[in-house]
Every structure is written in structure tokens, then in C-alpha cells.
Amino acid sequence: LPLEADHLYQVTVEYQLRGTTNGQLKVNDTDVRGRAVRDLKTTARGWATATATFRPGISVNPGRLEFAHTGSDVMAIRRIEVADQGPAPPPGQIAYRSDFGALAPAKIKLQGKEMLESTGQIPAGFQTYAWDGNSIMEFAVEPEGNTRVLALRSLEGRESGMIFLPDVTVRKGVNYWVSVEYQCYSDRAGKVRALADPGKVRDISELPGTTGEWRTIHIPFRLQDDEGEAVRFEFHITAKGAENPLRIRSVVVAEAGLPTAPAGLGQSLYRFTAADAKPFRTTLSQGRHVTRTEVSDMPAGFMAGVWKKEDTGEVAIEDIAGRRAVTLKNEDGSVSIQFFATQPIAQLSAGREYTLRVVHWGNADATGKIEVRKPRVNTGICAHRVRGTNGQWEETTSKFTPTEDGPVHLYFQNSAGGDSGKVAFHTVELIGPGGTPVGAAGGSSYQLSLAGTRAFARRYKKDAVVETQGDGNLPAPWAANTAGDETLGDVFAEALGGQMAIGLRNHQGPSSVRLFSRSDLVRVKAGQKYTVKLSYQTDQNGKGWYGVSIGGTEVNRTDFTPAVGNWKDTEVTVTARTDGGLTMAIGCESSGSEASVYIRSVQVRQVP
To answer: How many helices (H) and strands (E) does the chain have?
Structure first.
């Protein structure tokens, strides 16, 4: 079966296994061999049902399920179901984030633990050696584009070279993802191990070869009962030869299930990092604006241009001062070069404080800025100024509080002319308020954001997708289906009036297509009140509804009134009678090409 990277899959197995030896369910999501995801315990004489959830780190087609049993008794299987639960939620609080680019260059040649040659030093907190004393290996901190990476090479003898990262503190009872960005030309690159205090070692994942491409694999990790909270992650090379290094660009260890955020702040709503983009350069004049249609290596969802016809300027992604960055330079006398997102980057709430974090560089006369703006408005609700930095990279932040709910756009600008006014931006991050993250399902508030959602269209019959277009997905935890098997229903994402929206349409049969939350949007408390607010639009013949449920029981159902060509808000307040989870469903009750219903935002919050 095909497995998509970063999707959550649930496997249900009905089986029978007698005797005293357990079996295992494994999944091949690494292109190497199966990894265990669930023990299948003995069942005496009856049939048992087991479920397991896993998240592939890379796309594999075909993937493979494996059933393993080493006992003498027979394991019988009579039903297997695999359900794609859609994209996994982003990771949460970060326990460790590598910064290999800041390490000093080094090249260390070792036989076992004995150093043979060295240029530079092993970085503080790291450890490296070959477990086979007769093997020769090389550890290096070496350049890769605009940064530096760790490299491990097996030169002679057995492939036994290892790198140990500094200690990482993780918490008991918490699920983590270990995300590794790496490269290797060999079929088998290596493996990742966890060494938990007091000295217990276990393999947690294979690293398949990447045919020379950079690839990120996400590895689930959880402390076992007999493991301490201080963990060292080890990378062990299995590739052979100096020409097949295992190279590692980044490692992130993060709690699973909640959005990321720097310490002390809230959810990371949006992050642009130039290191993830390809280099390009374009010169613009006469008021010209371009996208990746004209400049193929420009990041998707961005546009570059000059807003004054008499100006000339240049936008590039290039390496500057040791880092890859978006650079903006006006010709002498010009002031209007810009680079900006063509779709909203986030949905913000009035009265809440947000933080804009910018890593930037500027020449002596630089007067650039990053602006957060409302759609179709030329003045920003946050203007983060960038001045000259004496050739150094700096990280600065600005805080702001919107006065209105709604989506926002991002603009990179430079209003200084000449080489001395050139500016560069490595990272721009928009961080939500502290406390309960907006948009984190299961908290006490929720906000649907379609920032970053790519266009797609899917035709459903019950839960099955019978036709599909585009590579986008519904944002977690939302899903879609039709209530009846006689209905063909369309669910799609497209820009409507310059803003991304989710559309629902019944194509054929009784009207029953719907959008629903697979899991709780918020956790509610008995006696508390909660408002549910939607922003929607309808076609001329479009009809629809939305329902709110608590603990699986519907507590409100509201019909949409016509809103042809304009966004309209609808809001209801519900009182929770018991503790539980609040979920929602949104339906379309009309059929035909001019009978769609569109949703651009959903908000749930507790009120006095």
C-alpha cells in the first residue's frame, strides 16, 4: 500500500494466536525493513482485535505490513484494515534543536577510539568513535551550501562509526518525534539509537539511503519505564566507503501533537526559513511583478516586484555572511523593491498579543522592514524595522496586538537605494500568544487557519476518495465524507476573493457531503459557555449548516443564511452540561455547479 510522509495511519488487525509467545505487527515505512509498531499478544482460543497508529517519515510506494511470530503455534489473521487519518499535527515543545551551522569546521580520523589524524576538535558535548577497535572512521563538521553539517564516513573495516549528540532531557509519559534531516548515497545509511540514563541502549529507527537527496525522517520516541530522562541520541553509520558518508543537517526532538513554540511564547503560527529554498535572482523594473511562473526557483506562494514604475531593484535568495537569505537591493535612487506572500500566512484574533521574530542582516545604510498586513491594505499592523548590522546577523522581535479578527499577509521590503542599503532576511517567524495555543485541537480555544493550505479537490463516496486533483490536504483534525453511498460529494480548497477557503459541493445523488473534526477541537468543562464562530460564503444556490457536539451528542445545529459573493459571520453559544470534547460538522444541502458552500475560518473560545 502507498504510505505518505507525515500522515497518521491506523491499522486494525483481527487475529488469533495461541501458545505463550507473542507476535508482532511491523510496518515498512523506511524502504529498508519493517519496524515494530505493536505487539500481538496471545489470545488463548478466541479472536482478538488490535490497533496501532504510525507515522511514516518518508513517502513509500509500496509500503508493507509485516506479521512476525517466532513461536511454534500458528498465528491466524482474518481481517486487516488500514485507515489514512490525514496529515499528522505539527510537533510541540522542542526539547532539542541542533545548530550544526554554528560549529567550527573539523575532520577527525579514528581507529576505534584512537585518534589517527585531526583538523579541528570534536565539538563540546559531542562524542564519536568506532565500536570495532580495528575499524577506521572519519567524523567531520563540513560545509554544505550556506551552513555546516555533521558527516560520518566508514573508511576501513566494519561499518562501526558512531556520533553521540549532547544530552537531551525528555519527560516520562510524553510522546516525542525525533526529526532528522540527512543525506546518503548508499542503500542503507545507518540507524538511530537512544541511550537513556543509566546506560540502556536501544535502536529506534533505520536510516534508509536517500540517493544523494536531503530527506527528513520523523521517528516516534517515548521513554520506557526503566529509562531515565537524560537521553543521548546516537547515529550509527552502516554505509560503506569514503564515498558514501552519512551527513546530518539538522536534528529536532519535539513533543508530539502540539504546535511548536520557542520557550516562553505561544504557538509558532508561521515560519519562513530561506535555508529551505533554492537560490534564485531576478531584476525588476517598470512596476513588474513575478511569481514562480516566471522564475521557476522562486518559493511557491511568493511574489517579487517593484511598486514604482521608475524604480529598478533585485530580489534573490543567496548565500550571504555564511547563511542563505532573501536579499533585497534597490538601484541607486530606487526605493520600492519588495517580496511578499500571495496568500494569508495566519488567522489572528483581536486583543491578543503576537510576536514577530526576524533574523536579519543589513549593510550600513539599510532601512528595510518586515510588515504584517491585513489583506488589500497597504499599511501594516506590525512594521518590524531593519537597519544596518555591521555585517553581522542579528535576531530581533516585535510585539503587536491586532484590533480585528482576520487573516494577515507578510511583506519583505527595502526602501534604501544602492549596495550600501542592501538587506537580507534568514528567518521570519510569527508566534502566537502564550498560554493555550490558538488552533491547537484539544485546548480550551481553537482557531482554524488555512495559511499554507495548498489547492486541491477530492470527490468522496462515503469515506472513499474516488477522484482527486492537486497535492493539498485538509488541515488537521478535519476530514470529509458523504453520509450516504448514493452521493458523490466534492471537497476542495481554493482562493476565493484572495483568501483560501474550503468548499463543499454535492455533485450527484442526495445532498450529504460534509466536513467534520476527527478529534476534539476543545476540551470543555461542565457549566462553562463556549462560542462557536464561522466565516462562510455561499454560491447563488448554495445551502448548508453546521452542528456542534459535546461528548458525541449534538447540542446545536444552525442553517446558513445566503451569503452570495460576500463573507458572512455566524455565531452560536453553547453551554457544556458535562466535561468532554467539543467537535463540529459542516454540511452542504445543495447540489450542482452553482450550489457550493465555503468556509474560511472557524473559532471556538470559552466565554464568561
So the answer is: 0, 48
pLDDT of residue 357: 85
276 SS3 class = helix
Beta carbons within 8 Å of 269's beta carbon, 6+ residues apart? 259, 345, 346, 354, 430, 431, 432, 438, 439, 449, 451
Task: Output the CA angle 237-242-247, nearest 5 degrees.
Answer: 50
Pull the grid cell for residue 24.
508482532
Q: Which of 419, 409, 367 is nearest to 389 (CA)?
A: 367
Nearest to 515 by CA among 438, 447, 599: 599
| DSSP label at residue 199 | T
Query: Considering only CA atoms, which of 103, 76, 56 is closest in space to residue 322?
Result: 103
Provide φ and ψ at 407, rounded to 5°. -75, 160
With vertex at residue 192, the alpha carbon angle to CA 187 and CA 198, rounded to the nearest 5 degrees, is 155
Location of C-alpha cell 473534526: 517
* Among candidate residues 215, 249, 177, 205, the one with its CA nearest the CA of residue 29: 205
Query: Which of 261, 110, 248 is closest to 184 using CA atoms?
Result: 248
pLDDT value of position 404: 77
Give the residue among 271, 250, 251 at the shortest CA–CA distance from 259.
Answer: 271
Reported as a pLDDT band with limits 50, 70 and 90, residue 131 is very high
pTM of the full structure: 0.38
HEC profile of 385-426: EEECCCCCCEEEEEEECCCCCEEEEEEEEECCECHHHCEEEE
Burial of 545 (0-12, 13-18, 19+ CB in 10 A): middle
Q: Is 406 left (phi over 0), alpha (psi -120 to 50) or beta?
A: left
Tens-place pLDDT, residues 358-410: 889 999 888 899 999 987 667 678 889 888 887 778 878 888 888 877 788 89
Residue 154 CA: distances (Å) to CA of 106, 181, 202, 241, 323: 16, 20, 22, 5, 29
Phi-psi sector, 32: left (phi>0), alpha (psi -120 to 50), beta? alpha
